[in-house]
Amino acid sequence: MASIAEKMIDCSVQALVQRDASLAADIPHMEQEVNHFQLEIDNQANLLIALQQPMAHDLRFIIASMKISSDLERIGDQAVNITENMQALLQYPELKRMIDIPEMAEIAKAMVRDALHAFVTSDSAEARKVVLRDDAVDALKEQTFRDTLTYMISDPKTIPVGLQLILVSRHLERIADHATNIAEDVVYLVEAKDIRHHADTLK
Question: Are 112 and 181 in contact (CB under 8 A)?
Fold first, then answer.
């Protein structure tokens, strides 16, 4: 499920950067696969809770798995949103060479990948590092907003393009947020500690 979600990010951003809608042609099919996996995970988790009555670490594992599958499904949705923005952008000339958005995408993809690796290996230290990387994505989103706003103010004709680019940066920031959620769930699973809203406990 994570592999498909990561591929969806890559396809949607590559289609955007290269202005080639065909690169995102498989996104709808991949979204259906991710949705199917989420339902399957939820069904299996509910059965385990009902039939096995798990406790302690086992119960935390099931809860974390359900929450992580939900975040992965939302990551897929964000990739779909980026694809829709890309299709809108193809109607206009390119505003500028994209630098920050591809960098945001690479960081967000790495965060998703590393958060899932931390889950598989029960490595809460790695998960904590993923949480700290969210700030870099936030900074790039703000940079994209400032740069794009400059174009929009200087030339109102660029506003439709600028708004789409700002939305793309927002979707990538949300992907990083979902990766952060996954990492926080790993810490909860391994350490039985809830670090949400407590960034000061990570360092």
Answer: no
| Residue 187 identity | V
Place of tokens 């904590």: 128
- In this prediction, residue 23 carries a pLDDT of 97
Q: For 63-89, how does the pLDDT look when each residue is reduced to its tens digit (9 = 90+)?
A: 999 999 999 999 999 999 999 999 999
Burial class of residue 29, CB neighbours in 10 A (0-12, 13-18, 19+): exposed
CATH 1.20.58.220 fits 2-201, yes or no: yes
Contacts 24+ apart (CB under 8 A), 133-137: 133/107, 133/176, 134/176, 134/177, 134/179, 134/180, 136/107, 137/104, 137/107, 137/108, 137/111, 137/172, 137/173, 137/176
The answer to whether 100 touches 147, Cβ cutoff 8 Å, is yes
User: 96 falls in which pLDDT band (50, 70, 90)?
Assistant: confident
pTM above 0.85, yes or no: yes
Give Dmax over CA atoms of the chain in angstroms.
Answer: 63
68, 143 in Cβ contact below 8 A?
no
Residue ranges covered by each domain of the chain: 2-201
- Both tokens of 50, joined, read 């009902």
CA distances from 117 to 113, 134, 174, 198 (A): 6, 17, 20, 22
20: which DSSP letter?
-
pLDDT of 97 reads: 81
In this structure, the chain runs to a length of 203
